[in-house]
Amino acid sequence: MHEFDVGNYTGSGRAKFLRHVGLYGITAERLSKGRSNLEVVQQMLDAGIRVIQYREKEKSGREKYEQCIRLRQMTAKSHACFIIDDDVALAAACDADGVHIGQDDLPIEKARALLGNKIIGLSTHSPKQAQDAVRRGADYIGVGPLFETHTKADVCAPVGLAYLDYVIQNIPLPFVAIGGIKEHNIAEVARHGASCICLVSDLVGAENISAKVHALRSAMDAAFANGKGTVK
Predict the structure, then answer these.
(1) What is the pLDDT of residues 65-77, one digit of tens each?
(2) Which of 202, 174, 217, 203 is nearest to 44 (CA)?
């Protein structure tokens, strides 16, 4: 068993580590400047990112499985959490640490029945959806898209920072802030209280991923300089 073991985080605390990871990485091979997911994820891991979500909508099932087996080995070696987007069967097949599902995907209850103690994250876009995620047993939620984004074809309109504020004040679950976040606005998101932030195109498309991660962490730390803490 790799050092990151979801079994160490039980019940409502299954995803509590997200409150401390800082950056949450997601794959997007088409935005990675000709590099493979394996190359990009290795660079993210080398730069200290410890949550990787595999999100590839267009690849065949076989290609996704083969990539995820390799990525599971890589994340385990780096003691990182490995999450699969949408596909519960793929998460089980490659022994990922969990799955992240959307509002129109398999219901949380069915995902839990199939994955047991693994992490289940749920994308949310409104206070009602966040409250529903708590009630139905999600381990963490995605909060966004905060800003306009074109990373996904089926994305909804931006929910804005007001929704982030609502979640921070009213929802007890760990969360990842996502959607249109880049180096120029990550400090604003952090100032609102987000300590787990996801970037896609700005990260996987960086010429130097290590330097980009350093710049993003520096921007977050500067935002936290009022005493809320620093990103490790």
Answers:
(1) 999 999 999 999 9
(2) 203
